[in-house]
Design goal:
The strands form 2 sheets. The protein has a 6-stranded mixed beta sheet with strand order 4-3-5-6-7-8. The chain contains 26 helices and 8 strands. It folds into 2 domains: 410 residues, no CATH class; 141 residues, STAS domain (Transcription Regulator spoIIAA), CATH 3.30.750. By secondary structure, the chain is mainly α. The radius of gyration is 30 Å and the shape is elongated. The protein is 63% helix and 6% strand. It holds the Pfam family STAS. This is High affinity sulfate transporter 1. Keywords: Membrane, Transmembrane, Transmembrane helix. It is found in: Membrane. One of its GO terms (biological process) is transmembrane transport.
Length: 561
């Protein structure tokens, strides 16, 4: 029971000292990146920076124990922060105690939505994100993250909305760049590239962060116009339930559902993308439970609703993290920093942070995955490309909606044109096989064996009729028997029932018999329920295709004699 609901316990089986060292280094590195970025997202959400920092403690520990993705990093995230700001702006003044309490309560409500979704086992929603959507989404996020760091690397700020507009604005004012910042950013990227090529396990990002703080302090880079993190408040949060009115609770309900949809979708897309790289799986229902506890932990510790950080997850994965021990190490590091080391962090150049994010984000764009999509289907490449464009140009929430619509449309497209084949006996395979793939497959004169590899329903009923008649009309000799290999047909609906009756009538008009082979119990029951079993004929059902062909051969011999 423990390992079922607490994946962390299962991941500790066979844990070694080598893995511990790797995970700790990864966790410390992620913490160094999380602290300044979480401060920025807190400001974006309209709450004090302390609320962003508190969201790096208990929520991270909660996910470490309950999350099913061993490398995912949770915490304050840009899209969720924007939703928080949008939801709370009409209710209280940004930065006020009332506003901060509302943000914490929103986190509790989001956690409640996650837990209700877990009880309802709504993890299946995640299954509507296809591989094309996953590849497109993670590529789009990588591009957005890279574009978002241009200002930090050049020392140019922009108030433009959207990744492309912001990047264009920054580049338009490149003449105003702070060249000391540019030098810091360029050297940082160069150090990361060299470190990665020398040894992929070398903690280049961690070394860079420490080096960046030391150089910034020694040379007083802030006085040269280099943007730094600035003062960080110290201390740990107290645990309490925020006090808000009933009317505010009602006003936050819709926002809680919106944050749930964004946070869950983003989490599943990100976690499954990274899990696929390591041949792992992510349990969507377990993720609902994990994020329920994560959001509750954020709420009671005066934090804000959190999400999955694509950039920090990329860094965590790049550092070779093997389990959520890295998350525990990250939370512990943040706690130590908040208690004792807030002073040095204030010297961290923003350009160093930007360089680390750019380097990690660039690795998210997997050319091999795009090539695999191209080999599989051009349609999937188009879906992935549209997803990328939506993430970059429209936004994450809108992109997720478009991605779901595209995935469902692709499902309908595939269901409307399922794989099918005319079968013949292959001596080489010693079975009935697709004559298109096996030229040696022999066809029994007067018999057409046809297989369709999907359930029959309204979307593919006409395709089924068209393809079956094409197989009959294309036969080299006059057809007397049609054998339908029904092994892949799990069910039929009313439209398919009508189509099947039309086929039976049409075959009989041509003096052709219909036989069914390898019919499942469920399909046989369904045919019996609508009286099609009797219409087809009880003696026209066969256990194998071979048995059906033999029966047809016997019938032909008996008829001719």
């Amino acid at each position: 029971m423990t390992t079922r609901y607490v994946p962390f316990a299962r991941s500790m089986s066979g844990y070694s000292g080598g893995r511990l060292r790797t995970d700790v280094v990864a966790g410390v590195t992620v913490a160094a990146l999380a602290l300044p970025s979480s401060m920025a997202y807190a400001e974006l959400a309209g709450v004090p920076v302390s609320a962003g920092l508190y969201s790096l403690l208990l929520p991270v520990l909660a996910y470490a124990f309950f999350g099913s993705a061993p490398r995912v990093v949770v915490g304050p995230e840009g899209t969720v922060a924007l939703l928080v700001a949008t939801a709370l702006a009409p209710l209280a003044a940004a930065g006020s105690p009332e506003y901060t309490a509302l943000a914490a309560m929103l986190a509790l409500l989001v956690g409640g939505v996650f837990l209700v979704a877990r009880l309802a086992r709504l993890g299946w929603i995640a299954d509507y994100f296809s591989q094309a959507v996953l590849v497109g989404y993670i590529t789009g996020v990588a591009i957005v993250l890279i574009l978002g760091q241009l200002g930090k690397l050049l020392g140019v700020s922009s108030d433009a909305d959207g990744a492309i507009r912001e990047a264009a604005d920054v580049l338009a004012h490149v003449g105003d760049a702070n060249w000391t910042t540019v030098l810091v950013g360029a050297l940082s990227v160069a150090l990361l590239v060299v470190a990665g090529r020398v040894n992929k396990r070398f903690p280049g990002a961690l070394v860079l962060v420490v080096l960046g703080i030391a150089v910034s302090w020694a040379l007083d880079l802030a006085s040269r116009g280099v943007s730094v993190t600035g003062e960080v408040p110290s201390g740990l949060p107290s645990l309490e339930v925020p006090d808000v009115s009933a009317s505010d609770l009602a006003a936050l309900a819709a926002a809680a559902v919106a944050v749930f949809l964004v946070a869950f979708s983003d989490s599943i897309l990100t976690s499954r993308s990274f899990a696929a790289r390591h041949h792992e799986t992510v349990d969507a229902n377990q993720e609902l439970l994990a994020f329920g506890t994560v959001q509750l932990a954020a709420g009671v510790s005066q934090g804000i609703p959190v999400g999955t950080s694509g950039s920090r997850t990329a860094v965590n994965d790049d550092m070779g993290a093997t389990s959520q021990v890295s998350g525990i190490a990250s939370a512990a590091t943040i706690a130590v920093i908040l208690l004792f080391l807030t002073g040095p962090i204030q010297y961290l150049p923003s350009a160093v942070l930007g360089a680390v994010i750019v380097y990690a984000s660039a690795k998210l764009i997997d050319v091999a995955q795009w090539k695999e999509l191209a080999r599989s289907s051009r349609v999937e490449v188009v879906i992935a490309a549209i997803t990328v464009a939506c993430v970059v140009m429209v936004g994450v929430l809108q992109a997720i909606i478009v991605a779901v619509v595209l995935s469902v449309a692709d499902i309908i497209r595939r269901a409307a044109r399922p794989a099918d084949a005319v079968l013949g006996w292959s001596e080489q395979e010693d079975r009935y096989a697709d004559v298109g793939d096996h030229p040696d497959a022999g066809i029994t004169p007067g018999v057409v064996v046809y297989r369709i590899q999907d359930r029959l329903f309204f979307a593919n009923a006409h395709f089924f009729k068209r393809r079956l008649w094409a197989a009959v009309d294309g036969a080299p000799k006059p057809v007397r028997h049609v054998i339908l290999d029904a092994s892949f047909i799990s069910d039929i609906d009313a439209s398919a029932e009508v189509a099947l009756r039309e086929i039976i009538d049409g075959l009989r008009e041509r003096n052709i018999e219909l036989h069914l082979a390898r019919v499942t119990v469920e399909l046989r029951d369904r045919l019996a329920a609508v009286d099609l079993e009797t219409v087809i004929g009880l003696d026209h059902f066969h256990g194998t295709v071979t048995a059906a062909v033999d029966a047809c051969t016997v019938r032909e011999r008996d008829t001719s004699s």
